[in-house]
Write the structure tokens for this entry.
Amino acid sequence: MKLGNILLLLILISCNPTVHMKQNENIGAAKLNFYTSHRQFYIIDKNPTGSTSTDDFWSDAASIRRLAVESGILGVGTECYGPVKGEIEFLNHSQKAEDFAKYDHVVEGDLQVNSGVLQIIDCPTGAVEFEKIVNPGNYRVRIYSMNLDSVNGEDEGDDYYRIEVWQGEPEGVKLYKEYKNQIP
């Protein structure tokens, strides 16, 4: 390959707006800003085998956790009815459990991605808001929710969701910090 082609390739890679490399910990990150409804959005395998319409998807326990789980689907509970602001970050491995003081709610669960494509979709239309090609396998997904008390009414607030994703063995749902001001 000619030097000019190599330089062009390096420039194109460095200009990718959705993937930023950082000290071999972060293997991709993107900002999220979209509208959903019903205080939820989904992180899914492109071809999930589960369904969000099952009677126990948003069980009482899932509502408290703000995380519903089905095969190939994670439902993420939000404080605002519609607007979602946040970020998703792909890591080589899990971050150590940190001091969660700046977060209102922290939960983690498993997502089996068999298709090799992880997506974030809105509710109820299923519009794809984010998509990333990944290696097929099980992924751990940790959701940090913050500024939940800022929500006044249904759509007014500065709630923010930080999502970390890494490939790992299934460990089930872990609730690290629970937000006590649950939606009625």
Remarks:
- Residues 20-177 form a domain with the Substrate Binding Domain Of DNAk; Chain A, domain 1 fold (CATH 2.60.34.30).
- The chain has one domain: 20-177.
